[in-house]
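Example noted here:
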Amino acid sequence: MNKIRIRASKEYDVCIGTGLLSQLGTLIAQLCKVQKAAIISDSHVWPLYGQAAKSSLVQAGFEVVNYVFPAGESSKNGLTFLSILNFLAENQLTRTDCIIALGGGVVGDLAGFAAATYLRGIDYIQVPTTLLAAVDSSVGGKTAIDLPAGKNLAGCFYQPKLVVCDIDTLSTLPAPVFRDGCAEVIKYGVLFDPALFVHLEHAGIAFDRKAVITRCVELKNAVVSEDEFDTGRRMLLNLGHTIGHGIEASSNFSVSHGQAVAIGMAIVARSSGCADAGRIIGCLQRFGLPTETTLSAQVLAAAALSDKKRSADTVKLVLPERIGSCQIVPTPVGQLLSLIEAGL
């Protein structure tokens, strides 16, 4: 098992390895004297791993309740959020109890936001079951729900107590969902680590899962420890995301997050004059990820104006110069359309 200590305002470990789901109860019991644990999961993940997680917790002495909502981004809304809060209240969870987010990014965002707001904050543990959640959304404390106006517009920063990443859970992911996570993995190579990018170029989808997930978490830790609340360097992690979120929303989420981020990365690589644009696009394509969209520049520019990184008349875009070097560029709203057009 690899263990990475996240150096945020509240420090915690990310455990990465195989067979960890059966150790979940023991790992949590070592950290806190919880009496009751509420597992939050979705309709895809619960049938696969819910009972294993619950059994591990029961064996460690916890009373366990569970809440399962319909899988998908469309559930990441205020109604589901309030339903989870009511479930926690009905089951009389207290400040000494905890929430366990068992699933991908949608589960983690919803459960984390509920943990941050229920009783003004109780402990929660992230148990990511997708590659995307393992390398990105489960680490760093971002929690959120979507609003009709855009993605992740309501939320807060709230760090988990622990992250337990059992690589075995990735084996049941449908190929398109696994590729979604690969977009985020490629993003880390483009941003920070040419050696990681080369490994991905050469290995393709057969990359070393444990080593690559560990490296991505290490890279994210370096950013979060410097800029926990996303006011500076952490914004680099939005490479491909401002345009990508616009693609997701404009497609009514028929385009997945990973696919949208891949397209967003390809657009900014082309439009920024990045020296390695060809390699970035080639790597995305090798992983079976899209690099083009039929949505117009006008639609994407309008959607980008709802991005939470917008400040007055500027949108902060992350533009790659070369692999391993990207810059945060405040872009005037008036220039956004032409920049997107150049990347399509």
About this structure: The domain at 2-172 is CATH 3.40.50.1970 (Rossmann fold). The chain has two domains: 2-172, 175-343. The mean pLDDT is 95.
